[in-house]
Every structure is written in C-alpha cells, then in structure tokens.
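Write out this protein's structure.
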Amino acid sequence: MAIEPVFQPGQRVRRCSSREQVGTVVSGPRKIAGGDWYAVSFGGPRVSNVPSSDLELFTAGGSVEELLREGVYASKETPANLLTFVKLQFPVRNNVCALRATRTRFLHYPI
C-alpha cells in the first residue's frame, strides 16, 4: 500500500521555520534518513532539499494586517528588517539641517 505524497510538483509551499520563504515544489519526495524530502525552488537558480516536516501549503490571501495578526505573514523580525533595509536604501538627503537632531539608529542588516 503506497502512501500518497503530501506535496505535488508545482504546488506553492512555505517553510515553517522561516515563514518568509515561499517556493515551488520541483519534484516529488525522496526518502532520506527515513523522512520525505522535497526539492523546492525559492526563486533563483538554486533548488533546496527541505524535509516535509518543515513545509506547509502556501495560501495567499487577506490583508497584511490580518496575516500579521494570525502569525502567518512572517516572523516578528521580518517587518523590522524590511523597514531598516528601506531606510538604508533611501537615505535622508533633504534633511541636512536636522541630521544631528534625528534619533534614527542605523543598525546592521544581515543580507
């Protein structure tokens, strides 16, 4: 009696451990160390092997506020990292007079 795979090629999935990573299943499961591992493309040329226990079906919908409230948008740190990245991408240019008066702290953003 064969067990039906959890995910099919072409389905959109999200990593449970890193919820901001959404990708597409490339191929069916492979048995590695007794568990099912799927080849998933998270964008770009590289394909990652991910255990089925770390994947869930991705269902897009709702507003960003609803997704954040439900805890399915991403981790708590993701919006703060995004805001820091945007601040660094578009530096303050037109506020030369207030440059020393601002309390903005530019922290390291891991890329």
